[in-house]
TrEMBL record, chains A, B, C:
Protein name: aspartate carbamoyltransferase
Ranges in coiled-coil conformation: none
Purpose: Catalyzes the condensation of carbamoyl phosphate and aspartate to form carbamoyl aspartate and inorganic phosphate, the committed step in the de novo pyrimidine nucleotide biosynthesis pathway.
The Aspartate/ornithine carbamoyltransferase carbamoyl-P binding domain, residue ranges: 104-245
KW Nucleotide-binding (keyword) present: no
Domain of life: Eukaryota
Length: 404, 404, 404
């Protein structure tokens, strides 16, 4: 599978908009140079490498870079002074492997090679350490992100905004409800207008394909934050990133997906993305809500083993990752049918007793009742850490497309 | 009255979330060390102490620290260079007395000892001077506040946001109307999710107790921005702070509360909080809208003198602080009854002629007609300065719970 | 035409609010001194003048300053080091000619002399170069803008917010829908309250004159973002600025206005403002939607030539600027009448073939169907650059009224 580079439309007017071409400005920032060494003002201090991508020595990439040992804490990479100070953009480098994403639209996970994902995850991991160390970052200082949500999504919009803020940037919200679109403006015009004010656009739309078509007219990078039943690349990336952060690797794992697998966009994208790894997939779904044949055949074509189960209990013993999703009552033929089966698809502390000690419970959230609140205190419950990882993945993507 | 420390729930996973424990990070920042000395780059300049808490020399604390002489202007504390530059977090210290609030939820004024309040007011006072000097602060640079308002409150939400911005931080808004709660997500889940993205949460909810129960699951500090008829700690604090800023002290003052004292949460909390000082309370309320017995008996139990009056005029002569509140027409049995009495509860320039020269007029705002606009130009009208003080109190609280 | 300086109300309380008087703080910042020289930390580097107003040498002001040769690229003005670093406020100066706008309300274009506009345009032009160079600016670091929109206007609110962010400041949004005004608070009270939290207010209101009357009580500068059929100064300024940026000068140009010229506030303000230059105005409007007599007579009184045309084609040959506006269907007596004429007022690639090679197409946006999307790729289509220029004009105004 080769990545499909998606360039913003070439500037209409080279003189006027040259400065807007992220490719060029990326070049300006010497992306083809080796990672720079940062010396703190105090000459007594040793040189400090603040490369976003930790030195390969500290991040041995095994099996195609989908597994790694944790890098040394930043406290050892950074002098106290350097830790106190904010990290300026010029001191952070994007891995050469990610250069081709600079200035690109992020529309689908199909854009990413396995290696690029691995590097993106390393960037996200390093950013996570920095945030948890309470480092303030100036990577995107002065840059503006336009947040355009034509559909409600608290988690996605909040984490994109927090991601931009934590990189030192700022956010302009385009409120569809109170927007020019009321005056009959086209999506394309709204997007082009916001691209006049912002450096990057995050776009969510209920119509599949709407984000890609809108991005065609846009000279600034557009990140797809979900287009209906279409793509939601950052969700799939944060899911795989979470498995990596929780278990150290994705290869060799058995991932069990539970709930409405027929309508769940999240599990469809995730299943496709996971075919890049050596895994086993298990499905637990109510009748008539099975994983669609086209997904199953795609997964099979990649040589991935798939198994179906009637209940969580049966699938649990060998499961490394339990991926829970919502089941909407209205999907069932009758109230009785719902009552009859839905018990098999609710995770309780009792069921957790049969799970592996190191199993990970995930959920795209929001949940309704498919995971009982008592499970939250179980250290294997990773769904809130999963939500947090969404912020780090979005930080990594924003830093990458904006060429920092 | 002993403070009730309210710690966020201990991290589920020590390794993953250790960095999230503000207590520890506070320790990291050497809070137990004496205030650091800041030297500007120019070696010729004298060392400058930018401690958030002005040196006790400049702030002699008398009578339990509820009164003080104004500290010298920052212009004398700071060199021009230092004034030009932003104040980095590392140059600001929180008083040892406030350490126990670092990383804590702020749910009720009952958490604060009189001494802690006094120190909080000193911090707020210093921040006010810095803002009025147009100093830009980096105290909370890189930190994110989640603003979660399940009920409209322009003043509170705007001043919390402005407070965070003026400290160098940023704000993510959780719009209930357009939020996952529509998809049936629980308040607790929404709060835990936002705590994945933010460093501190500001929560407003119509249901009494909702904020406290939501905070129990939250590993980041939660600040109560009002929970229905329950608590609204920052309002009570800014009210007392305003009396202090306007009159220099609270002790010995006669505070007259006017309006609907039966339903006014604000006056209830304020009355309770004021019992920590040596004051006299006067009430002016329409029939059936008197201060509730439980409040009166609580105040009496603290040895505070309380007096009732039928009209503002009668209560005015000895009044140092006139605290006006709204009277909702619908509270009255009949239109006639409303017409009959409400005149007694409206403040006019004419009535002001009978007031002390140094009296202070306060109002939690918004007002409707209980204070005539002509009073605004009277220097004793403090209600807009009171609103501004809300921002400084919120700045002080944010800086404190985030351990700066 | 003499400018009408509009000062915020003098502070009620000199001690408390002195620090709020932008005039004074402007003085503090030595606005009457000659532009300062900025030396980068490296002594080896030559002194760099970062004055917001490029040296007159590089900006020869001809014909009343409404035309100029482009200044040298900042790359020649700035050392690489200086380019990497953010530009601190202290390194930027406002032209003496703009001093009288420091701390002023911006309510109408009538406030501006031709010279002030010219200097404002120079500031906007320099800020545009800085943004396109991806310079991060600290000019308004720590300052807060209140965004109060009582009427929907995506473009105006988004570009004001982006402008504030790009200057290093932050924005507090006052959502009318979810605001105290629901509780019956007056506009004046809401504005005074927000002025307690913010350093500058941007106010949009459907009622003509509402912004000016609200600004009378406000001690912080208020910028009029449109008051119904009243004023919308930043729109008129960005229109003239765009002509200047696109053609290098306004003098001698023939500007053709197309569409509903009777109800279009934008074209009314623009026509008035353009009378300050040596231009020719052409009108193309449907029957009953002609430019109002009072505007025509005002324009005539300034000795400006006006011509009427029935269709775009007829007016096109000598047109340098084609200013398109919307025609609302409902303005027409009947569906037939609409169908009959509206074709004459739609811009297509076919019509563009008859236009000058250097003609500029403008539109206040949003457009519906009056400009076919195929025109967008024509280099003469300037309406998106026009939208972007709105951000630079707003940056220049914010920097000016806040005295940086």
């Amino acid at each position: 599978m080769t990545p499909e580079p998606l360039r913003p439309t070439p500037p209409r007017d080279s003189i006027r908009t040259r400065a807007h071409s992220p490719r060029r400005s990326a070049g300006d920032r010497g992306f083809l140079l080796p990672p720079r060494i940062h010396r703190t003002s105090d000459p007594g201090l040793p040189p400090t490498d603040l490369s976003l991508l930790p030195p390969s020595g500290s991040l041995p990439v095994v099996g195609g870079g989908d597994s790694y040992s944790h890098p040394p804490p930043l406290s050892r990479l950074l002098s106290p002074q350097a830790q106190a100070a904010a990290v300026p953009a010029s001191h952070l480098q994007v891995s050469p492997l990610l250069h081709c994403l600079v200035g690109q639209h992020i529309l689908s996970v199909r854009q990413f090679t396995k290696e690029q994902m691995s590097h993106l995850f390393n960037v996200a991991h390093t950013l996570r350490l920095m945030v948890q160390k309470e480092r303030s970052l100036d990577i995107l200082k002065g840059r503006v992100m336009a947040s355009m949500f034509y559909e409600v999504s608290t988690r996605t919009s909040s984490s994109f905004a927090a991601a931009m803020f934590r990189l030192g940037g700022s956010v302009v919200h385009f409120a569809e409800a109170t927007s020019s679109s009321q005056k009959g403006e086209s999506l394309s015009d709204s997007v082009q207008t916001m691209s006049c004010y912002a450096d990057v656009l995050v776009l969510r739309h209920p119509t599949p394909g709407a984000v890609e078509s809108a991005s065609r007219q846009c000279r600034k990078p557009v990140i797809n934050a979900g287009d209906g039943v279409g793509e939601h690349p950052t969700q799939a990336l944060l899911d795989v990133f979470t498995i990596r952060e929780e278990l150290g690797t994705v290869n060799g794992m058995t991932i069990t997906m539970v709930g409405d697998l027929k309508h769940g966009r999240t599990v469809h994208s995730l299943a496709k993305l996971l075919t890049q790894y050596r895994i086993t997939l298990r499905y637990v779904a109510p009748q008539n809500l099975h994983m669609p044949p086209e997904i199953c055949s795609y997964v099979a074509s990649k040589g991935i083993k798939q198994e179906e189960f009637k209940s969580i209990e049966e699938a649990l013993p060998d499961t490394d990752v339990l991926y829970m999703t919502r089941i909407q009552k209205e999907r069932f033929a009758s109230e009785e049918e719902y009552r009859a089966c839905f018990g098999q698809f609710i995770l309780t502390p009792h069921i957790m007793t049969r799970a592996k000690k190191k199993m990970v419970v995930m959920h795209p959230m929001p949940r309704v009742n498919e995971i009982s609140a008592e499970v939250d205190t179980d250290p294997r419950a990773a769904y809130f850490r999963q939500a947090e990882n969404g912020m780090y993945i979005r930080m990594a993507l924003l830093a990458t497309v904006l060429g920092r």
